Amino acid sequence: xxxxxxxPSLSVSPGQTASITCSGHKLGDKNACWYQQKxxxxxxxxxxxxxxxxxxxxxxxxxxxxxxxxxxxxxxxQAMDEADYYCxxxxxxxxxxxxxTKLTVL
Amino acid sequence: QVQLxxxxxxxxKPGGSLRLSCAASGFTYSDYYMSWIRQAPGKGLEWVSYIxxxxxxxxxxxxxxxxxxxxxxxxxxxxxxxxNSLRAEDTAVYYCARVxxxxxxxxxxxxxxxxxxxxxxx
Lengths: 106, 122
Description:
The structure holds 2 protein chains of 2 kinds.
Chain A: E1 9-12, E2 18-23, E3 33-37, E4 44-47, E5 61-66, E6 69-74, E7 83-91, E8 94-97, E9 101-105
Parallel strand pairs in A: 1-9
Antiparallel strand pairs in A: 2-6, 3-4, 3-7, 5-6, 7-8, 7-9
Chain B: E1 3-7, E2 10-12, E3 18-25, E4 34-39, E5 45-51, E6 58-60, E7 68-73, E8 78-83, E9 92-99, E10 109-112, E11 116-120
Parallel strand pairs in B: 2-11
Antiparallel strand pairs in B: 1-3, 3-8, 4-5, 4-9, 5-6, 7-8, 9-10, 9-11
């Protein structure tokens, strides 16, 4: 079965750029999306089709996907961006989530 | 506005059964694939199942095959998850979510419910 690998945690200072990676075999051949989940809340879609932002998602969120790695980039990270982030793809009629990355802004 | 509201969670003994429901509103429900996704306490997201817009295609993650059944009633704008032979490892918050792309070229979840907690314990 297909697997997606994310770093468990990442720390960034306010105003800096956070890059969260998601790795999988030939991931660049698939459509990746990203979710943000804050404590006690449901996940929110922040990137879909590798790099598209849903309405209402700030421009500081961007995405890319090539080779074996998809990346969620948060430019000018703010304290409110502190959350868990999950990548996800659809492969062979099943849905796969990465293990999640806890982003700490300090 | 799109709303997904889950219900039916609770405490159940190992081997028991539970039926979850998800009430959808604010969109043409019969146009969209729907999914169940769960999250064990302190853990990540795990896809459970999805069902096509007309209910003709259903897929499950391996760990629930033969125990869980997903169904939908488009006349009632509702999604269901019948869970049998429950195990401790099924303890989780269960979310229903909508697949945003009606053409199913991509498979992102654009709306999620608030979740309902299922606890399997003796």
